[in-house]
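Known limitations

Files may contain more than one protein. Parsers should not assume a single record per file. Below, a two-record file is shown to illustrate correct handling: read the sequence, read the token line, then continue until end of file.
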Amino acid sequence: MRLQLAKSNREVNLAILNYSSSFSLSDSFLFTLLYNPFVFIALYPTATFPTQLQQAIIAVEHLITTGVHPSNLHLVGDSAGGQLILSLASHILHPLQIHPDISSPNDIPKQLRHLKLSAPIRGFYLMSPWVCLSSTSPSILSNASLEVFSTATITGYGVNVLSRIKDPSASMPYVEPANAPPGWFDGLGHVVERVLMSAGDGELFRDDILRFSKVLEAVPGDDVKPKSRKGKAKRLPELDFRFVLHGGVHNDPFVDFMVKLPESQLGGMTKVVVEWLKDGVDPPVSSSHEY
């Protein structure tokens, strides 16, 4: 991806917050780029929710405090990484309060630190996000013969993760964004300027992602808010949301890069992602870099 962007004079850096059980690129949370570090975060079942959210907050906070402006930052996540981005967005909109009786093996504070943004983050790309861990949607079964992992495997993961959440009533919207209450993502335009989300027509998560796409499509934007004390009406930033249903399976665009296809043979979704990121990264006019 970095090489593809460089061809159009978009110079970026990359940082990867990786939490795959095998420490591979699958199920990774690609943050922005800072000297190409790989930072491994605590894994389930040793670390349960909200450990990964806390670490994501710290990672983004670190990038911002080291000089990366939110408008120069893209967060890209696949599968559970996409879910983590949405969890982060939920926490910015609704700071999570940890119930006093929750204990963590990683000594997470009772109250998660609040990530304050001076401006909306430039973009989120959510590739095949795992938006419903307790899914019973038709595609969970109907696409089983097409998918890269089994229905039993993914539903088992979901049950195990959810069973270890100590305060489900308060935590569920952060863990299962597709089941968040109505209006939960209102104001998302204050968090991020543009969102691209994709799903494969042959993947298990298809129906859940389709359902969640309607939630983001309905996020209000450019609505006049009540007048401030100074008598001026305020407007909510409009969210630029795009959803693409392509003909592949879970995390399908990864395949293009793993098999090192030539540019002429890149799949349709891969080209969409490259162009979307290109549109979000301005050509450099100085020595500063986008992230």
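...continuing to the second record:
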Amino acid sequence: MSPEKLKTLSASGGSYIVCTPMRLGDAVTTAVLTRAGRFKRLRDNLEVKEVWVPPSGAARRRYVVCRNPVEAERARKKREDILVGLERELAASGRSEEAHPKKACDPVAANQYRPCLKGESGPGARPIEAKWVREIRKQCRAASVPFFFKQ
């Protein structure tokens, strides 16, 4: 949501709730997510905590952080499975001087382990910095890692 729309909502004097994804990563999101506090479990799949940023003063705002512990556990297990598979492939590659040099690259060349940079599209999509994309591509090439960009 744009700052102008938030300003209009604030000026209206009524109550409102604005939902934003955590992955936006702006300064407010970082401040809210790093604030200490305990989550209160409302349901098996919903935990919430209230956060005020800044903690005091006239400019402070109330935020409610929602977390789905069931989904968080599923995502943790998925990341763990990926790491186990990658470790297994790296162990199978031999990693010795006599091993075929391309064998060590197999896990990296596999689609499931390569980095994929994605741009946003549609209404409200944020523009992507071409300089940032080129820098990541440069780093991948330097490390002999396949680079994939999807708009």
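Parsers that stop after the first record will miss the second one. For reference, the second record is described as follows. The chain has three domains: 24-67, 69-111, 114-151.
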